[in-house]
Amino acid sequence: MDGNKPVTNMTDVGKRPAARRGVFSRRLSGILEPYYYVSPAVVLIVAVMLMPLILGLSYAFRDIRILNPFSGGFVGLAHFQALAHDSAFLGALINTAWWTFGSLAFQFSLGLVLALLLNRQFLGRRLIQALVFLPWAVPTFLSGLNWAWMFNPVVGPLPHWLTSLGLMDTPFNILSDPDLAMWGPIIANIWFGIPFFAITLLAALQSIPGELYEAASIDGATTRQKFISITIPFLAPTIAITLMLRTIWIANFADLIVVMTKGGPADSTQIVASYIFTQAFRRLDFGYASAIAAVLLVLLLAYALGVIALRRAMTHADS
Amino acid sequence: MASIEITNARKSYGAVDVLHGIDLDIQDGEFIVLVGPSGCGKSTLLRMIAGLEEITSGDIAIGGNVVNDLDPKDRDIAMVFQSYALYPHMTVAQNMGYALTLRKTAREKVSAAIDNVAGILGLNALLQRRPKALSGGQRQRVAMGRAIVRQPQAFLFDEPLSNLDARLREQMRTEIRKLHRRLGATSVYVTHDQIEAMTMADRIVAMYDGIVQQVGTPLEIYDRPANIFVASFIGSPAMNFLSGTCQITAQGCALILDDGTSIPFLAPPNVSNGQKLTLGARPEHIDIVGNGSAPSVPATVDLIEPMGLSTLVHVTLAGKPVKIFTLARPDLAIDSTIEIAFNMDKTHIFDSETELRLPRANEPFAAETA
Amino acid sequence: MSTPGKSRLRKTAYWGTHYLMIAAFVAFALFPLYWLLKVSVTPNDILYTEGVRMWPSRTTWDNYTFVLTQSHFPHYFMNSVIVSGFTALFTCIIAAVTGYAFSRFRFNGKIVIVALMLITQMFPLVMLIAPIFRILAPLGLTDSLTGLIIVYTAFNVPFATFLMQSFFDGIPKDLEEAAMIDGNTRFEAFRRIILPLTLPGIAATLGFVFTAAWSELLFALMLVSSESASTFPVGLLSFVSKFGVDFGQMMAAGVLALIPACAFFLLIQRYLVQGLTAGAVKG
Lengths: 319, 370, 283
What we know:
Chain C: The chain crosses the membrane at residues 12-37, 76-102, 111-133, 145-168, 189-211, 252-273. Chain B is α+β, with helices and mostly antiparallel strands.
């Protein structure tokens, strides 16, 4: 009997050799198991995304023009030097910022309002939720075509409405006005992107424990105080991550612009992503297009790292 | 049913050692309770027996076979989880029969086994329900049933009662004990609740900081704790501790507290004058005595907790809180000074440095200290 | 203290505003779709003369009958169904096992894989078209639905994986441990116990990926040249070039193309929020 034996001694009792076989194979399969699970994804991503990316980056240092049979040579940093003096590219950079943050600000704020509205119980909520999320399912180029159509004063109602509201003197197509054209794709993008924010924020809202609001009510908090002291802090992580991912996604998202304005008029809606598209598939200059893409990738990476560093600094400051 | 032998089992996560060499022999049919505060390694040890955690070094044998390198499914053990871990998308019957179905047991045999166990646990009416439609107590029973149906080599319980309310917990405690008596199954039961440990165990394994502090029957552990940790952890209300310096005089030994109060005690062998000692006395081993009867010490009454059957008197002795348990219903005024006496046969003396208990020479079944 | 009458008034005012705002959102969401529908049923001769009327004086189904009987549209439509369906299926399978590994295992290189997946979300995809074409061409995977499915699956796996991981994070580990003790291997426990519990999450992922694949234009345009392997977005563009710009027919085709995506989306959108909520509880 063990009795009162504090087992602090480390006697090494002779090991039974039986049933030792298979040790190595089990340990090994235990170590390998996670890799079995992730290998299909890794293989696919490396083959279809990483390798093409590296290949694509190598194009940035080569002269690759589809129509020129003598192209293909190594040109070093020539593309990047040209890029530094390319006023269309610099304009596209500014337009990208404008396009991205213009779209994002409205998508997010309207998405948040919609999520808050849908977070209450009311008659017909399920049906309404299904309807307001619908634009998300509409193919982007179709919505691009449709919005372009609606902005057209001959076949679309929007210019006439704007005139009736006194915002326009006579109905005209904002897509052909260099000062206003960017608003066309931005509005189409807002329409398309609200559901994404509404869905993610609604999910986050619904995961806030109801007791918190009850406790706050008992403590005498008003609706606005509850929103500021409970809702916002709980949503903050979701907001931070979705805003960051969406910024990058929208900056890369050229479809609506390509469909609605093709970057025009006079490059006034040309963003970097659509400029890449134009260089690659209109001028067929893949080398130059890849150089622009490389710069965009670096800028977006820097942005993401900056945001992550900022967040880390802020959470550290909190604790 | 089978015995379980654990030999020098260690567990570390990277550089952090969680278990520092555990030796434990569990007899066939024994009900063992691993008890200790959270983070002491008891759950890790249980999960190592189950095969859910790798063993860093050492051996675990079930029924004489070393199972270190067997998957949980090949160890033929059943486990009851704290969260019950019932499969939400299966009915009670499917939950209970899952393991047997996986073993390709014939369908009639499975349903016979389920019916039998459902009868034992009173689950017959619930067999077609989903876990979501069950109360906490019912879920607990289903989790038990799922383990019993399999007739495994051993049962492992990971704090199975901690999500139940007090009354239900008490009821299930009795029920699990009765079941164990009926099935005679080797059981390892993890809990942080020392009452569960005391009432259920054949033997208690008290753990702290990844080390087994003491193994013994509940009464052995209660009456002769190996060290201050075990003495303080087991027993409710908890043991009182007073530390001071040993003073050996012609009249005998006494513990001199910080404020000079002197408490006489029966000296264990090998205590020396001036040694730092800690006196441990369970609340029921301190008496409130009338004035003049020797050897008593004065204490101030802080609080009286009547519990019906008994009364707990909180007093302050030499600046330290002391609890006294009495079956009487003393009529004491708060803040009044009373005389208390320690039952010298029952009080324990610990070395303040090593925290080990110093057994008296004439103690029955003298403890084998390491 | 406010009197009961006052608080009732405030309540009415609140819900009035609430419904008004909801109505505005619904109108904003549905009006463009309504306009699409309107154009598609407007006869060609009054398409421009009655361009800004809310509803044309005459309507016609001609555009629809033409699209369904005289064009390749049904064929494009089938191609899109095949490509989107298989993309959604494969993406979900791969994302489920990968997301499960992210949720349950700690292993060397995990952070590298996670970082790789995050970075793929930043690629300007336009840049990848030419290189992907060069890699797929020798394998005979250009101008084929299989090639498109592979490319779309790769593009959607990272996001779907993170989505699935958050669903798995919401499911207690005890469940598969119980199953492993009951006699399952880990993979069996994953398949038989954990996967059935993430069905809402899987439905949400399927929906996300299906709609994304359904509307993809760029790669469909660049990787496929023959009509037989064109998906419907490409087909819609060919509509433009072939018949001049016949907006009525194009919009009719567009409306038809919306139907499966919207139907699918309406079916799963409930799980979308539900699934994300379950994941968020623990994540």
